[in-house]
Design goal:
This protein has 328 residues and is α/β, with parallel strands linked by helices. It has 10 helices and 14 strands.
């Protein structure tokens, strides 16, 4: 059955890819975004409604007037180091705005939601499963964990079908070249390393070379953004139980260190990435990985773009196309 889906953060990096995946599956989509970090140019699939989650009345009216019957909630702040410096802003926006959304859903009777969570809730963890005890290391990660707990309580009381997707670093770009990563300024490793390789940055700042990892740099799992988008669609379409929060990890179950990523970019582009070594950032775990076996078994999710080289190639292609004007 086709759904009418509100995607909060729908003009952002992951959100725009989710909107495309939903539309290609025949669902109707409204991308809801305040454009503080998103871009109208990325809202190419579905209809863009510019609005803010802090406006509870307007949100309730939108859900009612558009007859929304499912929500994908991606909007929020997402930088661990920044959250250490500005915890109040992260708790206000990530938790307070989620409560506004959930209240509006309850008022209108929308009972299906997929929440964009994070594997950062695990803290320092290797091969964690969904039953592992969360140990978030930053206000960002704690805000994700708190919203999960809120959603679990609400789902139980309201008989919602609720899903939390805990995923790793989104990477790459739409293989068709229509969408990709676009932040100002750009905080993420792969696009910043590509910028340094292209000479757009004097050097790539690498935060910490004394972590307890094989090469001393942080290790993360990277997942292609289009694979993450597919998982959001599957989470909406599967007949998951009502009255509880279903939690799924999403990742490729392989960790890459910062130096691994740099070497892969150098091999792909045939150039050197200049490095500026700096101190560790607060809130950064040394290594995080988790099992995606549950998502594969229950959702039928299968990453189709797991090769790190493909993530680098598509990210580079989108960055170059954006410099020349977005693909039409």
């Amino acid at each position: 059955m086709a759904l009418k889906v509100l995607v909060t953060g729908g003009a952002g990096y992951v959100g725009s890819h989710v909107c495309k995946a939903l539309c290609l599956r025949g669902h109707q989509v409204i991308a809801f975004d305040n454009l503080s970090t998103g871009h109208a140019e990325l809202a190419r699939y579905g209809r863009l409604v510019v609005g803010d989650l802090q406006d509870a009345d307007a949100l309730t009216a939108l859900l009612r007037d558009e007859s929304i019957n499912a929500v994908v909630h991606l909007a929020g702040r997402c930088y661990p180091a920044e959250s250490v410096r500005q915890p109040l802003i992260y708790y206000r926006d990530n938790i307070g705005h989620a409560l506004n959304l959930f209240q509006a859903m309850a008022d209108v009777g929308v009972r299906r939601v997929v929440f964009s969570s994070s594997c950062s809730v695990y803290g320092h963890a290797l091969n964690a499963t969904e039953t592992a005890t969360p140990e978030p290391q930053s206000p960002y990660a704690r805000s994700k964990w708190i919203v999960e707990q809120l959603l679990s309580d609400i789902a139980g009381a309201q008989q919602w079908t609720a899903v939390a997707l805990r995923y790793f670093n989104a990477a790459g770009a739409d293989p068709d070249g229509e969408l990709g990563e676009w932040h100002e300024p750009e905080p993420h490793l792969i696009p910043r390393a590509l910028m340094a390789a292209r000479g757009e940055l004097p050097a790539l700042a690498v935060h910490g070379r004394d972590y307890p990892t094989p090469d001393g740099t942080c290790i993360r799992d990277y997942c292609h953004v289009s694979d993450l988008a597919d998982a959001h669609v599957l989470a909406l379409e599967q007949a998951l139980p009502a009255g509880e929060l279903s939690v799924f990890n999403l990742g490729n179950e392989r960790g890459y260190s910062v130096l691994d990523i740099i070497r892969a970019i150098e091999a792909e582009l045939g150039c050197t990435v200049p490095i500026d070594w700096s101190a560790r950032r607060p809130g950064d775990p040394a290594a995080v990985s988790a099992s995606s076996a549950k998502a594969r078994a229950v959702l039928g999710w299968q990453p189709r773009r797991a090769n790190i080289s493909e993530m680098i190639r598509t990210a580079q292609a989108f960055a170059l196309s954006r410099q020349q004007g977005l693909k039409t």
